[in-house]
């Protein structure tokens, strides 16, 4: 029976974890402070320590150091909030097996605990230098943008290339994490304004009390706390591109001010009597349905049309599965550079899990997961065991997943693919992950005539 020490200052949460683990045949000790933990570590031997990173009298890093001093073979898993991920990464560098971000369900941590207990800690050895992993082809000037090869990705690139040289306002839509800001940067870099500033603004992060000052600037003494002149986002982007992310979060009052500034190409800093001319291109993004917000009176219709001279919808990652490993390998290159590692690639099991998973967090989730996996991997290939539980255990359940052939809805899948590709058999075959000959045989089998 494995012995586990849980260090958690939240009594209710700690008790829940203890009860959960004891029901699964672990012998669990629970303490609520670092000082109690130090006493337990020095007087007893544990197979695993599960500790919160922040405690009333110390932090999880000190507990980690104490554990590794007393018994290097004891594994440590750090629990942290999303705001403290950097501290958790430091813990990994100090020897923690893994970290889990709160809040989490106890079931989701079970696999991590089992992996930790089945990992043998060995003395550090001097590794032979490994060859740096080669990049998968040249990168564009926007190094964060990866161009896909799937039909949705090619269509996205075509739209960007089409609208970039113009001065049209562009509204970028798509789910959270699909890379809308990178598309905005790409538009800027391919425009005539590429040598001028690109200013990105998160509209959801600006308090409404200071929003006017943030956008248009202010003069010293114009209000309490205005101790210096401030240049607003419009003036900072003069000559270039102003990217307004989550535009749907703007207050109605600020929508009025923004519309006026866009129509007149002039702004007036708070506390000033003088207007300043600005020459900017506005690119906006949202994961909401702005047209619906217009109908409900939450977003001004005139501003919506001003911002939506041209719209681009960024496809979700699940809609371009052909690009999945292309993106994963690019993020692997970036993670290797950031973490000074030389992971060569992904194991077959990991790739299979990637393709089964639905990626609700899209590219952002994939990028964060790959970086975490690179940090955890000790061999050349990223193994299945370092992937988050929900990815490692995912199975395909979506009947509309075109990669699933011999599906009970096979005929419907073929019809859907043909409809989405406008009857183009070559494109439909690629979407279905089969060759054209197989598709023709299936069309004949089901009596589908085009």
TrEMBL record:
Residues with PTM 4-aspartylphosphate: 52
Listed PROSITE patterns: RESPONSE_REGULATORY, SIGMA54_INTERACT_1, SIGMA54_INTERACT_2, SIGMA54_INTERACT_3, SIGMA54_INTERACT_4
Pfam short name (any one): HTH_8
GO BP: any one term: phosphorelay signal transduction system
CDD domains (alphabetical): AAA
All residue ranges annotated as the Response regulatory domain in the record: 3-117
InterPro entries assigned to the protein according to its UniProt record, in alphabetical order: AAA+_ATPase, AAA_lid_NorR, CheY-like_superfamily, Homeodomain-like_sf, HTH_Fis, P-loop_NTPase, Sig_transdc_resp-reg_receiver, Sigma_54_int
Residue span(s) of domain Sigma-54 factor interaction: 146-375
Keyword Repeat tagged: no
Keywords: ATP-binding, DNA-binding, Nucleotide-binding, Phosphoprotein, Transcription, Transcription regulation, Two-component regulatory system
PANTHER family: PROPIONATE CATABOLISM OPERON REGULATORY PROTEIN (PTHR32071:SF81), TRANSCRIPTIONAL REGULATORY PROTEIN (PTHR32071)
Protein name (Swiss-Prot/TrEMBL): Two-component system, NtrC family, response regulator HydG
């Amino acid at each position: 029976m494995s012995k586990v020490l849980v260090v958690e200052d939240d009594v209710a949460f700690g008790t829940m974890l203890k009860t959960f683990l004891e029901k699964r045949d672990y012998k669990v000790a629970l303490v609520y402070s670092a000082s109690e933990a130090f006493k337990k570590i020095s007087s007893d031997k544990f197979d695993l320590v599960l500790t919160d990173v922040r405690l009333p009298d110390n932090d999880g890093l000190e507990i980690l150091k104490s554990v590794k001093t007393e018994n290097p073979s004891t594994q440590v898993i750090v629990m942290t909030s999303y705001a403290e991920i950097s501290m958790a990464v430091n813990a990994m560098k100090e020897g923690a097996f893994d970290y889990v971000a709160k809040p989490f369900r106890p079931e989701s941590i079970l696999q991590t605990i089992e992996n930790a207990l089945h990992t043998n800690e060995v003395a550090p050895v001097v590794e032979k230098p490994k060859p740096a992993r080669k990049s998968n082809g040249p990168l564009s000037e926007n190094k964060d943008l990866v161009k896909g090869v799937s039909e949705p990705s090619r269509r996205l690139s075509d739209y960007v290339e089409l609208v970039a040289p113009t001065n049209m306002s562009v509204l970028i839509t798509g789910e959270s994490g699909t890379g809308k800001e990178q598309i905005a940067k790409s538009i800027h870099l391919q425009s005539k304004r590429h040598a001028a500033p690109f200013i990105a603004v998160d509209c959801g992060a600006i308090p409404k009390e200071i929003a006017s000052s943030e956008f248009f600037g202010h003069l010293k003494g114009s209000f309490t706390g205005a101790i210096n002149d401030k240049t607003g986002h419009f003036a900072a982007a003069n000559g270039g591109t102003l990217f307004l992310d989550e535009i749907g979060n703007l207050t109605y009052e600020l929508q009025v001010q923004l519309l006026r500034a866009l129509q007149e190409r002039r702004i007036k800093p708070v506390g000033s009597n003088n207007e300043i001319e600005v020459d900017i291109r506005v690119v906006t993004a949202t994961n909401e349905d702005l047209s619906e917000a217009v109908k409900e009176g939450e977003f001004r219709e005139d501003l919506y049309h001003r911002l939506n001279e041209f719209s681009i919808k960024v496809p979700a990652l699940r809609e371009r599965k052909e690009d999945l490993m292309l993106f994963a390998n690019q993020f692997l290159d970036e993670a290797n550079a950031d973490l000074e590692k030389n992971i060569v690639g992904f194991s077959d099991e990991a790739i299979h899990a990637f393709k089964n998973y639905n990626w609700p967090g899209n590219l952002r989730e994939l990028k964060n997961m790959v970086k975490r996996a690179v940090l955890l991997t000790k061999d050349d290939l990223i193994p299945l065991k370092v992937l988050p539980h929900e990815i490692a255990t995912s199975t395909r359940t979506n009947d509309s997943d075109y990669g699933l052939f011999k599906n009970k809805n096979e005929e419907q899948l073929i019809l859907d693919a043909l409809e989405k590709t406008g009857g183009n058999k070559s494109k439909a075959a690629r979407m279905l992950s089969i060759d054209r000959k197989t598709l023709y045989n299936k069309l004949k089998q089901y009596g589908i005539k085009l």
